[in-house]
Amino acid sequence: MLIAFKSGSAIDKLKKDLSFEFEIKDLGEAKKGLGMEIERDQKDDNVSLTQKGYMKKVLQKYNINGDTKSVSTPLPTYFKLKVTMSLTFVEEHEYITHVAYASVVGNLLYATVCTRSDLSQAVSMVSRYMHDPGRVIGKQ
User: Fold this and answer.
1) pLDDT (average), residues 70-76
2) Distances from the Cα of 70 to the Cαs of 49, 56, 66, 75, 99, in angstroms?
3) Are 73 and 125 within one domain?
4) Phi, psi (degrees; rounded to nearest 5) at 25
5) How many domains does the chain have?
6) Would you call 111 exposed, middle or buried from its count of C-beta atoms within 10 A (0-12, 13-18, 19+)?
7) Whole-angstrom distance, CA of residue 8 vs CA of residue 24
8) Is the pLDDT reported for residue 138 higher than 60?
9) Same domain, 103 and 61
10) What is the mean pLDDT of residues 97-119?
């Protein structure tokens, strides 16, 4: 059970009350929950959820190394995907059929729903082409 209150005394009281009814074990401050890391900034009194570990696993799964650059906006709002960006060569279509495109989009969608709402526009854009990823990954 994860307990969160603003005051430490309220947490202590709840734990005391629960211990009268149930056998409990205090595991200390939570660091992870539901696959998300819980980060506390006691100075600013903030709590945040991240998926750094999950995102690292996703990058490794698709052989994307740590040399990639981070950006503040994953996909600029002015960027539009067009049919003219489609793959033109048979070899390109053959290559893209081996990429687990739906799996990549699914991994990103999970991150979007849980903690990374900033990815929603980009994931929405690329998920439109799940039936034919060649229309997304093309020459620009």
Assistant:
1) 70
2) 19, 13, 10, 12, 22
3) yes
4) -135, 125
5) 2
6) buried
7) 18
8) no
9) yes
10) 79
Residue 1 is assigned to a structural domain of this protein: no
Could you list the residue range(s) of the whole structural domain that residue 41 is in?
8-49
Read off the DSSP letter of residue 16.
H
116 in Cβ contact with 109 (< 8 Å): no
Q: What is the rounded CA–CA span in Å between residue 98 and residue 138? A: 15
Phi, psi values for residue 131, rounded to 5°: -70, -25
Q: Phi-psi bin for 120: left (phi > 0), alpha (psi -120 to 50), beta? A: alpha
| More confident site: 26 or 134 | 26
- Cβ atoms of 112 and 123 within 8 Å: the answer is yes
For residue 79, pLDDT beyond 80: no
Amino acid at 126: V
Chain centroid to CA 60: 14
| Residue 140 in domain | no
The residue type at 24 = I
Q: In the numeric block, which tokens belong to residue 134?
A: 């060649």
* pLDDT, mean of residues 107-130: 80
